[in-house]
Write a structure and sequence with these properties.
Layout lengths: L1 H24 L6 H26 L1
Helix pairs in contact: 1-2
């Protein structure tokens, strides 16, 4: 499960970064607040999976 969350987090982080960079050049119909929300969800998911992984090693 934590591998799935980790992969999903990387996809969200990389995907939102790519769309944000493309939005600067092209007219993509998505708002900045939605991109920011997806980025935050990806970051929280990645932190959660990493913290959960370290707590199981103890």
């Amino acid at each position: 499960m934590k591998n799935f969350v980790r992969i999903l987090a990387f996809v969200l982080l990389i995907g939102t970064t790519v769309v944000f960079v493309l939005k600067l050049k092209f007219n993509i119909p998505i708002e900045h607040k939605h991109l920011f929300a997806f980025f935050v969800i990806g970051a929280i998911s990645l932190l959660w999976s990493n913290l959960r992984d370290k707590s199981s090693e103890k």
